[in-house]
Structures are given as C-alpha cells and as structure tokens.
Write the structure tokens for this entry.
Amino acid sequence: MSLTVDDFDYELPPGLIAQAPLAERGASRLLAAGREFMDCRFADLPELVRPGDLLVFNDTRVLHARLFGVKASGGAVEVLLERPLGPHEALAQVRASRAPATGAVLRLAGAFDVTVLGRAGEFFRLGFPPGEDLVTLLERHGKLPLPPYIRRVAIDDDEMRYQTVYARAPGSVAAPTAGLHFDQGMLDALAGRGARFAWLTLHVGAGTFQPVRVHDLAEHRMHSERYVIPAATVEAIAATHAAGGRVIAVGTTSMRALEAAARDGELAAGEGETDIFILPGFRFRVVDALVTNFHLPRSTLLMLVSAFAGRDVIRRAYTHAIEREYRFFSYGDAMFLARGNDTETNMDAVRDAV
C-alpha cells in the first residue's frame, strides 16, 4: 500500500512550538521512546549511552544567510541563501513583489550588489562581488535565519544558541537542532561514560522547511544537500560495530549523511550530494540509535523517524509528548530512539537510568 502525506499528520497546539531556547542547553526534556515511554531530562542522556557506543555529530555551522535589500526599481527584496556554489556564487530564494529577471542587480544590506545569473527551479543563482569571499560578506552583512515557525526576529542570544557548541564548517542555513542540547559538560559526561565521538558535515539547506506538495509520497522529490564524511568516521563506525557497540546519530542530518553514504551496501568516506528520502520500509545500514527533536506534521523528517523507530511508536510518542506538553521543533525538547527492532534494549537502558 502506498503512503500518503496524510499518514504523517498530527495536530499540534501552537503554544507548544518553542519560540526561544531555555536558559541552559541541557535543561530540555528527553523522551525515550520504544514500546513504552519514559520522561527523562536531557541530562540523563549519558545513562542511556553504553560504554563503547559512538555518537556521530554534524559539525556544520549556520551562515548569516538572510539578506535584505532593494531592486534597481526600488522594490524591496529578501534573499535567503540555499547554499554557496563557490566563493562568489550562491543558490538562493528571492522574495519580491515580482521575481527579478536574469541580469538584474540587487543591492543587499545597503553595502554590495549581486547579479541574478539565472534560475534553478524555485531558486535563483546569484553572483556576488569579487574580492571578499561569500561567507565573509554574509557574516558581516547578513542576518541569522531562524526557522519560519519561530515568529520573531533573531536577537543576540540566537547568535550563540542557534549554533551547536562544536559548529566549525560554515555552510548551513538551518541548525542541526538535535545538537543544540549539547554543551561541553554533556560531552565530558558522555566521554566519562565510555562513549566515543565522530564527526561529519552535512550542510542543511532551506529546502528542509519546504512542505511536501504531493499527496502520494512516491511522487515526492527531496531537495539535495552536500555532505562530507571523513575516513576517520568510517573507521570509527566499523570498529564500533565490530566491538558490539551502537552508532548513535545526533540528529536526522547525521543519519541522512550516513545512510546516504551507505546506500550501495557499505559505508564509504568522501563527499557528495544526497537527496535521500527515507520512508517506512527503508533498510538502515549504519545507525542504531538516534537523538532527535520533534518534527513538523507532514514533514519528511517525521517520515524519517517513523521509518527508523516504527510508525506506531512515533505516533504514540507524539501523542504522549503533546499530552505532557513537551516543547516542539528547533528550540524544543528531544527524543532518544532505537532502531525499530531494538526497542526492548532501548527501554532496558532507560529503566536503568531513571
């Protein structure tokens, strides 16, 4: 039976959408979900991790990817980068009363001009001025792009809190939000538990917020995102599995990169583009457990976690979270999930922790 977008819908009270981070990164709640559910604190995460487990983090850094400006006619424009294409070129969304034509010049931030080089589907190719590279211009003149469901402008606190503490590779327009819960104290506690860490990079594009516009999910085509997986990470994963440990993806971005790089059956180091669309029935080859936030109704990320933990588990977990007023989305609370065939093992760890 084919899956439809309606299979991944739920009603969320608007008041549960977190509009700001908590005072401390680790102060959020953590729902450990399997056949049963345990309400924990994120501070309990080290107790859910076993000695020898490997946590894989996405070290991407969010760009100041939103720019405001004017067309030559004086009309207002808003530019949201999708991704850099080089030191002086980018793919972007451009919002204006009328779409700019190829060759049009946009004055951004009152500081520099960009040229519309052409279209690429719903995006525009923009040429940035020579001299300073694109990332430098963005950091100086751009604004941090908060998700569309956070209904306020970014403030100084967001400059720190909408980045992970380990962000180092600039290129995203949205944070890998599961990582926002981790601070240095949490990393130290996990290491003290005997866990090990590995890193990869997946640059999150603005397409992550695009709604699924088809009813039959067989017709949906994912946006593409760029990833890099170091050889050291592949080696650490192989060693972890060989020793009987679990690979725990921190966030759906880490999972997407790992499973995309293993689609041919064996995880390979390197870099590439992925438009992987993970639905129930997907065969996971790398990831054994997942730390993730709560995802939007009818979204591809909700479909991904349903594929991983099981549709029934996720449906009941979200009902549980809404009833207990968990905080949702980027600045919200977290979940700990094990692969669908390992829920009993998962819950044994949770019972020991609380």
